[in-house]
Amino acid sequence: MTTTTPMTHRQVLEALSGLLLGLFVAVLSSTVVSNALPTILTDLHGGESAYTWVITATLLSLTASTPIWGKLSDLVSKKLLLQIALVIYIAASALAGLSQNTGELIACRVLQGIGAGGVTALAQICLAAMVSPRERGRYSGYFGAVFALATIGGPLIGGVIVDTSWLGWRWCFYTGIPFSILAIIVLQRTLNLPVAARTTKPKIDYVGALLITAAASLLMIWVSLAGKNYDWASWQTAAMLGGTAVLAVLFVVTERRTAEPIVPLDLFRHRTVTLAAIASVLVGVGMYGATTFLSQYFQLAREKSPTMAGLLTLPMILGLAVSSTVAGKLITRYGRWKAYLVSGTLLLAIGFGLLGTIHDDTPYALLALYMAVTGIGLGLTMQNLVLAVQNTVPREELGSASSTVTFFRTLGGAVGVSALGALMSQRVTTVLTDNLAKAGVHPAGGASIGGGEIPDLHKLPAQLVPLVTDAFGRGSARSSCSPRRSRCWPSWSC
Fold it and tell me: Which of 266, 265, 270 is nearest to 389 (CA)?
């Protein structure tokens, strides 16, 4: 149904329920496996590289597909596109739950990311089409709260699933299916948006889509493999970075010449869009990096169960949800958003600086404070960056502009998780090898934990567990040896 009459508050809330439901399951797909991954990869015999790629495969396809979905929304029905994205997500989730090895799982996660990318971008675009710029802050706070619950609550849900014997890790993928079906039904009944009449047939920039996907993929592959399969300073690095640069240049040239570009370069004539894109990269690194590696830290450095690992991240969930909701309402009331973005980025930097000091025996009270500061910073920046851009560009560019911000956020998350995962893997291997040598453990005795696979602490000999938790504790952050460390041998020089 096409309508030009503004939607009432009740109609907006009804449609918003479907959008938020779809957004929740889409974001959940990137985070629900975080606490479950050690269990999943133990069952599928995957290693640290697979740990990173199960996360980044989804982020990569989500990143690459986001601008495509955004551009399509400026050309055809937003409602239809959103429902198609949910169908893709449902099919990919079902296939991921049936995976028999890490290769199949990663392939299904790529497809899952395409659907999730559509839902994530289109939900925000639909909101912008439903309400006026001044009222968007009122509703964008709900988006931020749902994003917070899904982003950081996902690990808790995944932890509960793998700790429940009659469910198993495959339900991490099956759980979102019924909610996605419900979202499609709700959207069909409640979401009625005008479809702009066009005198010409829509043209899809397939070349631009291919180039931006190739550039992002090559950069991701380099970040994931550098330092392990080859040196950071090597001909492979030069070839991949050079290839990424060439693809990026070709993408820019293509976008300048095509009639319907995937990412209209004219968007960046707006200073707000340019700054929001840069900030979104940093926010993406923080958001996805925190959820991915805090889960691993709690399970492998502090010996917590997947469920408990999720519960321990509650300070970040609450900080993100509360700050996002409150900031959205204040922006609607006073019409100002710059102060929230500036203070949010400052708090985010402080929070990650503090998290960079943790080790395997950091008091939880301090860790909770660090996570809360980080969560508040994310809540003040993540959704408000999209809001700032939507209030800057013309209505006909809402789709492309909104998806561009989301693109840079997920690109930052994908590259950040890959880079941090590669650095962590290298750091853990180095520290663990050093720990085994200094503890007098013969290399063969530690082969099962030094061969690159995610260790199962419950199956390791008791004398090896402290060596492993210390390695993951020091690998998760920039840790140092202090007089209080209970696991520092006197002869060690840290």
Answer: 270
More confident of the two residues 376 and 192: 376
Return the half-sphere exposure (C-beta side, CA atoms, 13 A cut-off) of residue 275. Answer: 13
Evaluate whether 348 touches 374 at the Cβ level (below 8 Å): yes
Tell me the C-alpha distance between 224 and 203, whole Å: 35
Contact predicate 174/90, CB 8 Å: no
Helix or strand (DSSP H, E) at 359: none
Helix extents (H) in 301-337: 306-311, 314-334
CA-based radius of gyration for the chain: 23
Three-state DSSP class for 281? helix
Amino acid at 353: G
Q: What is the dihedral of CA 328, 334, 337, 339, to 10 degrees?
A: -110
Between CA 382 and CA 378 the distance in angstroms is: 6
- 26 touches 120 (CB < 8 A): yes
- One-character DSSP codes across 441-455: --GGGGHHHHSSBPP
With 0-12 / 13-18 / 19 or more C-beta atoms within 10 angstroms meaning exposed / middle / buried, residue 237 is middle
The first and second tokens of residue 337, run together, are 């958003």
- Exposed/middle/buried for residue 31 (C-beta within 10 Å: 0-12, 13-18, 19+): buried
CA–CA gap between residue 29 and residue 58 (Å, rounded)? 8
DSSP 3-state assignment of 226? strand
Please give the angle made by the CA atoms of 41, 45 and 50, to the nearest 5 degrees: 55
d(CA 255, CA 273): 17
DSSP code at position 206 = H
Q: What is the DSSP string of 12-48?
A: HHHHHHHHHHHHHHHHHHHHTTTTTHHHHHHHHT-BH
Token couple for 183: 């979202």
CB 169, CB 39: distance < 8 Å: yes
Stated length of the chain: 494
Q: What is the 3-state secondary structure (H, E, C) of 377-398?
A: HHHHHHHHHHHHHHCCCCHHHH
Q: What percent of the chain has pLDDT over 90?
A: 6
The pTM score is: 0.66
| C-alpha–C-alpha distance, residues 229 and 371, integer Å | 33
Q: Other C-beta atoms within 10 Å of 346: how many?
A: 13
Lowest-pLDDT choice from 167-181, 227-241, 373-387, 421-435: 421-435
The angle subtended at Cα 483 by Cα 478 and Cα 484, nearest 5°, is: 85
- What is the spatial distance between Cα 473 and Cα 467, in angstroms, rounded to a whole number? 10
Non-local CB neighbours of 385 within 8 Å, separated by 6+ positions: 276, 279, 280, 283, 341, 405, 409
Using the predicted structure, report yes or no on whether residue 295 has a pLDDT greater than 80.
no
Question: Do 335 and 65 touch, CB atoms closer than 8 A?
Answer: no
